[in-house]
Model the fold of this input.
Amino acid sequence: MNKHITTYGIIGNPLKHTLSPVMHNTAFKKLNVDALYKPFPLQDDELDGFFEDLKKEDSPIFGLNVTVPYKEKVLKYMDSLTPLVEKLKAVNTIVINKKRKLTGYNTDAPGFLTHLTELGFDLSDKRIVILGAGGSARAILTTLCLIPERPQSIKIYNRTSSRLDHMLNEIREYVDVSIVEPAMSVDDLDIELADLLINTTSIGLNEEDPCLVDEELLHSNLLVYDLIYNPAKTTLLKMAEERGARIANGLGMLYYQGVLALQHWAEDVEISDQIKNDMRQALEKAAYV
Ligand SMILES: NC(=O)c1ccc[n+]([C@@H]2O[C@H](COP(=O)([O-])OP(=O)(O)OC[C@H]3O[C@@H](n4cnc5c(N)ncnc54)[C@H](OP(=O)(O)O)[C@@H]3O)[C@@H](O)[C@H]2O)c1
Done:
C-alpha cells in the first residue's frame, strides 16, 4: 500500500461489483485532491488485524465505507458512535481523525430519505409497507419511526417471522414503534391502501425472481421503491409500472449515502452540485452502461 496517498475505501465481502470506488474517485479527481478510494475485501478473521493497523499513526486510511456482512461487526472497533448509529446498531461509514480515533456513522437510511425527498415524496401521514427484515429494513424502519414527519402506519412482512419479531423487539428498546404493525402474510399488508411500498429483500436481484406481492394490488397512488438497483427494473418494479404506480430503484439511495459519506470525510470542503452530478453520472455509467 502506498503510505503517502490519503486513502479511503470500502470493506466488505464480496466486493467484486461495488460501485463506490468509481463514485468517490470521480469526486476526488474533480475536487483535485490527492486521494484514492479502493476496495478492501476482507475475510472475517482479517477484521481484527485490519482495525489494529488502522489505529497506527502511519496508516494512510482516513475514511471507510462498510458493507455486507460487516456493518454490525465493526461496531466494536469504534471509539464513538452517532446517536443514529446507537439506535440502528449498524455502521456504513467510518471517519478516522488525525489522532486515529474512529467514529461510526450510518448514511444508508439518510440516503434513502434524501432520495425520497428528491422524488418529492413527503412521508407525513403516509401508509407505508415494507418487505423484509434484514439489515437495510432495520435501518429504514428505525429511521421512519424517528423522523418528525411521522408516517401514519408502517406494515412490515418478512418470510421468516421470527427474524421480524426479533428485530422489532430490539428496535423498541430505543424507538417508539407504535406505528409499526407486523403482518403474518403478504395478504395482510393492505397494499391497496398504501402510499409507499419498499422492497428491502434480495428478491429481484435475479431477472427471473418473482414479484413478492400480488400485482393486482399495485395501484396508481403508490410509489414502489426497490432497494435493488441491478437490474434497474426488478420484476416488482416492472409490474408496478404496468399497474400505473410510480417506481424508483435503489441507485439514488446508493448515490446519496455516498455523498453523505464523502461529506463526513471532507467536513470542511464544499462539495458543489457540479461535483455531485459528476459522481452520479459516473455511478449511473458504471451501473448501466
Ligand atoms: N440501494 C442501496 O443503497 C442498498 C443498500 C443496502 C442494501 N441494498 C439491497 O437491499 C437488499 C437487502 O439487503 P440487506 O443488507 O438488508 O440484506 P439481508 O440483511 O441479508 O436481508 C435480506 C432480506 O431478504 C429476504 N429474503 C431473502 N431471500 C428471500 C426469499 N427467497 N423470499 C423472501 N424473502 C427473502 C430475507 O428474509 P429472511 O429473513 O426470511 O431470510 C431478508 O428479509 C439487497 O438486495 C441489497 O443489495 C441496497
Notes: Residues 68, 108, 132-137, 158-160, 163, 200-203, 205, 227-229, 250, 253-254, 257 surround NAP (CB under 6 Å). The mean pLDDT is 96. DSSP finds nine helices and twelve strands in the chain.
